[in-house]
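Slide 14.
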Amino acid sequence: MTPDIARAANGGAGREKTGELTVLSFDDNRLAGLLFGEHDRNLALIENRLGVDIIARGNQVTLRGSEHARRSAAGVLNELYQRAEAGLDITTGDVDGAIRMAMALPKPSGNVVEIRTRRKVVRPRSPGQRIYLEALDRDELVFGIGPAGTGKTYLAVARGVQALLAGEVDRIILSRPAVEAGEQLGFLPGDMKEKVDPYLRPLYDALHDLMSMDRAAKMMADGTIEIAPLAFMRGRTLSNAYVILDEAQNTTTQQMKMFLTRLGEGARMVITGDLSQIDLPAGTKSGLVEAVEILRGVKGISIVRLKEADIVRHPLVARIVAAYERGSAEGGERDAGSGD
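Slide 15: predicted structure.
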């Protein structure tokens, strides 16, 4: 149940002495404790990020600050409390994601955008992730482009698992180009599966986070879930399947066209990549770069660009990405101005 909200007159110390108070009361003391976090650490995070003072007493919190700050904080607390009511954990990442949404978007009035599997519930942790999830629900072909840590692959795999368990598709096909192996692939020990598995490991990791390893192993054994390098897609028609191509920035023009034309009846396709990490030989144009240029505006296709602000890993990752981008820009300027 949503908490009762009352407004009090000015008074007391706070971030803004002229601000009104917003008081929220939660029905369940145990859930309120989960909401506040150990030693009220969740409340402290909301205070610091949204610029609002929060005082907790029992199952009641008092918010003080600007109207916008109080409204945002109340929305975050309400959303997290509903998560606790649903029996879900409240992690620091969940709190951070709710704050990001509150800072960037008005509180959504429609359906909650989320992915439910038997193992966990996945919700967007940034405005860009919300747009991406909406595109995955809406369109048959989606490009998810962005830097490391934006969740583009994980969310695609989560949506595929949801679609499989709901009977929307008959199978999941996960693929990656094994560019890193290059000409050395034949010299690696083991059979073909053992040679390419290291390059497909991120897909296995995402899959195992969303379903039990036993269940995933059984589905891979009977072909319900297939994880294979891009070269294995040639000549196939992928029908009634949820098909994901990861690290697509490392495809050539021919490989990308081949993959796109595998789309069969009743299938959905997601193509993810990071245009700042192209490992193709010098002079080879990325098939992903070309595809988004050619397919822009085509009905039924979404191209979602996730940004630095959508990175949901350790906060340091976002700063690392930003530093590298600044370094690249400065390096380009120096090169442009240093010609002999």
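Speaker note: The chain is about 40% helix and 15% strand.
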